[in-house]
Amino acid sequence: MKRHVLIFGLVGGILIAILQYTEYRFVVIEHSIELYGALVAILFAAFGVWLGLRITRKREIIRETVVVKEVLVPAESPTLGPFAPNTARQHALGITTRELEILTLVAGGFSNREIAGKLYVSENTVKTHCARAFDKLGAKRRTQAVQLGKEFGLIP
Length: 156
Hints:
By secondary structure, this protein is an all-alpha fold. It has helices spanning 2-30, 32-65, 87-93, 97-107, 112-119, 123-137, 142-151. α4 packs across α6.
């Protein structure tokens, strides 16, 4: 009896192994084009990820090597004395004291977030004052607003 069970088990195992082998051959031979396409897709995806990481790392390195130096220019000159804004021009343009204060900080190179921190207001309030001052000066950019403010004698 044990001998029959052993023989049936051995034959059954051999038959299962043969079926698995033929199934494997069928999959590999019949679906080789699909398998090849999947392999190529995986290789290209891996290459794309590698290339993307490599390019991104180089940009981060470039960003780390850029040095920004802020140079503060004193508002008073030894020959001219302390700076006084042209109040007549300020009133003619309709620029408020707060807008002039923010324009001065913009000229100092501060960001909207830094200005908001210095003046204890929200960043949106700073953006609103900047936009109104830019409109009154006829400027489209921060640098242009600073240039016009200096030309009009509003900021040092």
